[in-house]
Amino acid sequence: MITSGFIKLKHNNNKYIFDYDNVSIIRIDDKVEKFLNLMQKYEWEELENKSSMYMTKQEYRKLIESMKSMGFLREAEFEGKQHYDSSNKISSITLMLIQGCNLACKYCFGDEGRYNHTGFMDSDTAKQSIDFLIENTNSDKLNIIFFGGEPLLRFDLIKEIVNYCKIKESTNKLKFHFSMTTNGTLLNKEVNEFIIENKINTMISIDGDLNDNSDRVYQNGNQAYNDIIENTLYLRNKGLLSARATITPRNLDMVRVFEHLNTLNFKNIPISAADNSLGTLEYKRYIDENINLINQFKDYIKNGEIDKAKKVKILFRALKQIHFSKKQNYPCGAAFNSVAIDIDGNIYPCHRFVSYDHYNIGNVYSNCMQTSNFIKKIFNDNSKLTECSSCFAKHFCRCGCPYENYENTGILNRPSSRQCYLNKVIFMKLLYLYIDLSDSEIEALFE
Fold first, then answer.
1. pLDDT tens sequence across 173-193
2. HEC states along 310-355?
3. For 240, which of 235, 316, 346, 373 could close a Cys bridge (C-beta 3.0–4.6 Å)?
4. Residue 201 forms beta bridges with which residues?
5. What is the pLDDT of residues 300-340, one digit of tens each?
């Protein structure tokens, strides 16, 4: 018999444990706290006798059964090997419609959208990619993500793909959902109408106000911000656009960035850093700014601004995970239920690995894809088992983004030490935020 991993929390004279194996917060009394202290000192055979000084045998057995029913006590198991399923099928593809862009963002991880290989996807490859998805899924709900570079440089191909998917829907009893990440500079009346008609979930890359976006420039060096604001107005006013902000040394004030984008009526506002752009001192401030954002997030909730709080996507998602005790063992969908397909039909775990030849896992023309080795590295690498399995934030961090891990440490499931520290800071703050919520606030957030 073993216990779940746990940490102790104390708030307003109340005591809690956070069972991080089951993502569960449990309020405890003094007796349970003493029992937990004994558990950390003695073997199971000694526990009943040691606990007899402050609880009866009946109370002891009742406590043990209660802890078993909550999953806090369980038979010994080796946790690192239990989640991998090699039979998993994909349900989503990211199409790199063009490896090129009309912007030249200075922090772009994709070499200004080229991914070291300039070109565009042709119609045959796009259709072959759709056929490949249909043949390699066990789901009737499929997702197509239009990506680049700047995907709207291939608006003609987007229209062709959507029409092709509609034909496939009628003959295969499928339902396709579409999404797109764009810089917003090419939105116009025709594109807007097409997005609305086909319910394309669209996200704009924008980093805050004019000064924040000084890294987002056209190929000729001219500022793109004013064009983005003008061209996105129609869809923003309809509440149909999300905004993704990238944090760099120019816009570390995350609360200010969020507040500005919220005034522009974006429906969701995920925020994350261009990690390689932040030096040591800048990263320290970035940690502080994350704390400021969490405090502001809490203020939104306490002030009844629930819809606004939900727009702070990464924090609301984590809070929701705590509330519903949701275990998440895999960092993302990369190679697990989604893949990226480049302009030549080559398949990669996700768009960020495009052009990394050693992570080319297949090609749509050969109808061949090998995802198991990539996934096994995520699940079974010894570094995950030894460094992450006993971490209280493991289901929040999920060992981090595989691409960022690879870039920072050379290992897919080993985050950098500073990213690891940041994740622990964020999640600990959110645990205390959650136990401070009133019943009415919890109901407003999650019911």
1. 999 999 999 999 999 999 999
2. HHCHHHHHHHHHHHCCCCCCCCCCECCCEEEECCCCEEECCHHHCC
3. 235
4. 179
5. 999 999 999 999 999 999 999 999 999 988 889 999 999 99
* Residue 174 Cα to chain centre, angstroms: 26
CB 203 within 8 A of CB 180: yes
- CB-CB contact of 85 with 337 (8 Å): no
Structure tokens at 118: 């300039």
Averaged pLDDT for residues 227-234: 98
List phi, psi (to 5°) of 271: -130, 130
HSE toward the beta carbon, residue 81, CA cutoff 13 A: 3
Nearest to 242 by CA among 197, 282, 188, 195: 195
- Contact yes or no for 137/100 (Cβ under 8 A): no
The helix/strand/coil state of 103 is: strand
What whole-number distance in Å separates Cα of residue 18 and Cα of residue 289?
A: 25
For helices 123-135 and 155-172, give the axis angle rounded to 10 degrees: 30
Quote the CA–CA distance of 322 and 434 in Å, as a whole number: 8
Q: How far apart are CA 1 and CA 136, in angstroms?
A: 41
- In the chain, helix, strand, coil percent, each to 5? 45, 15, 35
**CA pair distance 25, 309, nearest whole angstrom:** 22
CA distance 136 to 346: 15
Torsion of CA 126, 128, 134, 137, to 10 degrees: -90
Structural domain boundaries in the chain = 2-77, 92-323
* Gap between the Cα atoms of 324 and 58, Å rounded: 31
How far apart are alpha carbons 24 and 32 in whole angstroms?
A: 16
Fold entry, domain 92-323 = TIM Barrel (3.20.20)
Cα–Cα dist 430/445, whole Å: 14
Q: How confident is the model at residue 78 (pLDDT cuts 50, 70, 90)?
A: very low
3-state secondary structure of 92: strand
